Amino acid sequence: MRIWVDADACPVVVKEILYRAAVRARIPLTLVANRMLRVPPSPWIRALQVPGGFDVADQRIALEAHDGDLVITADVPLAAQVIAKGATVIDPRGELLTDANIRERLTMRNFMESLRGSGVETGGPAAFSRADRQAFANQIDRLLAKRR
C-alpha cells in the first residue's frame, strides 16, 4: 500500500495528519503537486513535483496509483479513475469515495460545472472546519487499522 496525495489544493492540516500517519504506520506517502513542497524528513514521505499545467498532478496520480493504494483528493474525476483501478479514495473532509457513491458525485460535479458554464453563480465549498479535520483523521485511522 502507498498513499498518494493530490497536494495542490490539499489543506495543510490534512497533510500534517498524513505525515504522522505515514510515519506511524510505515507506509510510503507521496504528495504530488505542480510546485515544490516542503515535507518533513522521513524515509516514508516524499514530494513529487510535476510540470505545471491542467490536471498534470491528477494524471500522474492516476498513472501511479494501483489496487490497494490510498488516494487523497477532492478531484472527483481523479477519484473515479483510481477507484476503477482498485484504489481507496478519501476526500480531505474525510468522506470515503467508493464505487457506490462516485457516479453520483460525478453527476453532481458535471451538473454544477454546466451551471457555472452557463453563468449561474454556484458558490464554493464551505470553509474547512475542525469537524472536517476530525472526520479525516478518523477515516485515516479506520483505514490504517483495517490494514493491520
Description:
The model has no long low-confidence stretch (mean pLDDT 92). Helices cover 47% and strands 15% of the residues. The protein is an alpha/beta fold and 148 residues long. α1 links the parallel β1 and β2. The radius of gyration is 15 Å and the shape is globular. It has a 6-stranded mixed β-sheet with strand order 3-2-1-4-5-6, with helices on both faces. The chain is built from 5 helices and 6 strands, in the order βαββαβαββαα. The relative contact order is 0.16.
Number of helices: 5
Q: Residue share in helices?
A: 40-55%
Straight-line N-to-C gap: 11 Å
Radius of gyration: 15 Å
Q: What is the strand arrangement across the widest sheet?
A: 3-2-1-4-5-6
Low-confidence spans: pLDDT under 50, at least 5 residues? none
Total strands: 6
Biggest sheet character: 6 strands, mixed
pLDDT average, as an integer? 92
Q: What series of H and E elements makes up the topology?
A: EHEEHEHEEHH
Strand content: 5-15%
Given the C-alpha coordinates, what overall shape results? globular
Structural class, by secondary structure, is alpha/beta
